[in-house]
Amino acid sequence: MKNNPAEFFRKFSNRVSKATGSFWAFILAALVIIVWLITGPFFSFSDTWQLVINTGTTIVTFLMVFLIQNSQNRESKSLHIKIDELIRATKNARNALIKTEDWSDNEIDIIEKEFIKFSKNETKKDNHKIHTIL
User: Fold this and answer.
1) What count of Cα atoms within 13 Å lies in the side-chain half-sphere of residue 34?
2) Number of neighbours of residue 89 by Cβ within 10 angstroms
3) Any idea where the domains of the chain sit in the sequence?
4) What is the pLDDT of residues 72-113, one digit of tens each?
5) For residue 61, how far is the Cα from the chain centroid?
6) How far apart are the C-alpha atoms of 36 and 52, rounded to whole Å?
């Protein structure tokens, strides 16, 4: 597993996603734009000057889509596994709800309507009180 490219990509995309979502990454991006704007008059706001930022942002955006999607897919899968375990371990839960992410949109809509109806009935029972843990 030491030289596994998929494992390297997983670790790399996770680190890049965390880093690019940070405050400092935003500051860096803002500084790049500010420097680019300041250099505009020196290059007479030429087509080449505009092409530099357009090309740079296009390349970064293109690569980030794949890195962020990889991290998002992994986090989503992990969350589904945790929720599936809670459903499986809960006595009165319906095990049929495990793996609903594989259901068709129509099947999900049907179960969503059932939960909305259930929620409305529970709200009426509670006399419209909202319970919080605060």
Assistant:
1) 6
2) 8
3) 5-101
4) 888 898 998 998 888 888 888 888 888 888 888 898 889 889
5) 15
6) 9
* Burial label, 63 (beta-carbon count in 10 A; 0-12, 13-18, 19+): exposed
- Check: CB of residue 49 under 8 Å from CB of residue 40: yes
Tokens 């109806």 locate to 117
Q: Which residues of 95-118 are buried (b: 16+ CB within 10 A; e: fewer)?
A: eeebeeeeeeeeeeeeeeeeeeee
Residue whose token pair is 């500051």 = 27
Q: What is the maximum alpha-carbon separation in the chain?
A: 71
C-alpha dihedral, 3 to 18 to 54 to 49, nearest 10°: -100
What are the b/e assignments for 5-42, b being 16+ CB within 10 Å?
eeeeeeeebeebbeebeeeeeeeeeeeeeeebeeeeee
| Mean pLDDT, rounded, for 23-31 | 95
Residue type at 9?
A: F
Mean pLDDT, to the nearest integer, of 4-22?
88
Question: Which pair of structure tokens corresponds to residue 39?
Answer: 């250099």
